[in-house]
């Protein structure tokens, strides 16, 4: 590797550690980008007094032309999802991605407003896609925010759409209360039949309300219930094994095949092992397992698992960067635990060593070399295997 590139990576890694970036990057900058994009989008589509539209709508005033309702909903949704990104919510990330894509399409179709806003939302979309793995939390707060936002946007769309197309219904919809009533009856698929669409436009609009209503309510219900079930399952598992004393034990991070096998083999030998996983359902079928549910790289989860009193902390996550951050978090907690890191990609070996783990294990890296040696008739000695598989820190040896 080029020495200049390696020095740059080392400098960036140290800056990341010194600034505590894992606590605020990239979710806080992305949330700010998204919120600013939403404000810019609203100002571009509705003018500098766009906030008055929200005030008028909340007050029941109908001064909004039909063509300006979609940008109002998109812009308002973008700003709301920016709040969810600060919580690193996967649901908020999904919604932000969809709304940013909708903003790109809207700006593209109205290209007379210039390409500055279009380029900005393309940049936001790219940043969201590249940072997807950082948004892995399923919290009741974020899911409830998503659900409320989706339901409110749907009600606004259905109510104001019914009002603007009121002349196409029989009897005609002439006030906002009747429009709201028709929207709720249609979204719930009750369909009393007292108000019916008469034209093709009105019928297609009614169909869109039914489809969106079923989709939004079902998705919102799932988004709220799933974290509740996961948290309840976590409490049941932790309560079942809470009698275990987390001292002089081993901590295994992740749910990879290597992590599961390591936990199983240590348990067979009578060792106390605590696992840290992001989702309680991943270990729901395994008996006699002490589990902490949370971000394996967070100081909170490691403290709950007793990393400061552990014999060893073994990082075996899918992502090598997450493994490195977990080791740094262990270092911050102090204690005497040895740190072991599994490397998934050979090109990351030098960067993993920068965090100075006690042992680096790289079984996947060795596979190709061993196969080549065996096929070539070369001797494979136990000393060679141990040297190549376990790259121990000289200072710890």
Task: List the keywords.
alpha/beta; 9 strands; 397 residues; Helix Hairpins
The biggest sheet amounts to: 7 strands, mixed
Low-confidence runs of at least 5 consecutive residues: 393-397
In CATH terms, what is the architecture of the largest domain?
Orthogonal Bundle
Which fold name is given in CATH as the topology of the largest domain? Helix Hairpins
> What is the helix fraction of residues, given as a range?
55-70%
What structural category do the secondary elements indicate? alpha/beta
Head-to-tail CA distance between termini: 27 Å
Order of helices and strands: HHHHHHHEHEHEHEEHEHEHEHHE
Number of H/I helices: 15
Principal-axes geometry comes out as elongated
Mean pLDDT: 79
What is the gyration radius calculated from CA atoms?
A: 27 Å
Q: Kindly provide the name of the CATH class of the largest domain.
A: Mainly Alpha
Spatial strand arrangement across the major sheet: 5-4-3-6-7-8-9
Secondary structure: number of strands: 9
Strand content: 5-15%
Provide the number of structural domains.
2
Give an account of the 3D structure.
By secondary structure, the protein is α/β, with parallel strands linked by helices. The protein has helices spanning 3-18, 27-46, 51-58, 69-85, 90-109, 116-130, 140-164, 176-187, 200-240, 257-268, 299-304, 320-333, 349-354, 363-375, 382-389, and strands spanning 169-170, 196-197, 250-253, 273-277, 290-293, 312-315, 338-342, 359-361, 390-392. The radius of gyration is 27 Å and the shape is elongated.
């Amino acid at each position: 590797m080029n020495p200049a590139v390696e020095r740059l990576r080392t400098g960036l890694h140290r800056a990341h550690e010194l600034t505590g970036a894992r606590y605020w990057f990239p979710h806080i900058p992305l949330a700010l980008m998204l919120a600013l994009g939403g404000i810019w989008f609203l100002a571009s589509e509705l003018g500098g007094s766009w906030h008055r539209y929200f005030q008028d709508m909340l007050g029941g005033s109908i001064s909004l032309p039909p063509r300006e309702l979609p940008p109002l909903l998109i812009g308002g949704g973008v700003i709301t999802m920016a709040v969810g990104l600060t919580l690193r919510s996967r649901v908020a990330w999904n919604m932000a991605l969809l709304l940013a894509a909708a903003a790109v399409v809207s700006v593209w179709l109205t290209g007379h407003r210039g390409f500055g806003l279009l380029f900005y939302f393309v940049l936001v979309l790219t940043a969201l896609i590249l940072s997807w793995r950082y948004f892995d939390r399923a919290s009741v707060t974020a899911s409830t925010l998503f659900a409320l936002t989706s339901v409110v946007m749907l009600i606004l769309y259905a109510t104001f759409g019914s009002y603007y197309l009121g002349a196409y219904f029989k009897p005609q919809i002439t006030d906002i209360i009747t429009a709201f009533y028709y929207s709720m009856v249609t979204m719930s698929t009750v369909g009393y039949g007292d108000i019916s669409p008469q034209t093709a436009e009105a019928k297609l609009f009614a169909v869109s309300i039914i489809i969106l209503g079923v989709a939004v309510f079902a998705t919102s219900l799932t988004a709220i219930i799933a974290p509740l079930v996961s948290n309840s399952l976590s409490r049941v598992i932790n309560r079942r094994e809470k009698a275990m004393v987390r001292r002089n034990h081993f901590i295994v991070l992740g749910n990879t095949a290597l992590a599961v096998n390591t936990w199983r083999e240590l348990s067979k030998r009578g060792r106390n092992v605590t696992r840290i996983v992001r989702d309680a359902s991943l270990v729901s079928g395994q008996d006699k397992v002490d589990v902490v549910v949370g971000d394996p790289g967070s100081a909170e989860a490691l403290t709950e698992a007793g990393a400061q009193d552990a014999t060893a902390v073994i990082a075996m996550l899918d992502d090598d960067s997450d493994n490195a951050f977990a080791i740094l978090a262990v270092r911050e907690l102090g204690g005497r635990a040895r740190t072991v890191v599994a490397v998934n990609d050979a090109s990351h070996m030098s960067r993993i060593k920068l965090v100075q783990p006690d042992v680096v294990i790289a079984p996947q890296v060795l596979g190709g070399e061993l196969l080549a040696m065996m096929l070539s008739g070369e001797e494979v000695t136990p000393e060679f295997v141990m040297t190549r598989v376990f790259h121990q820190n000289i200072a710890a040896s």
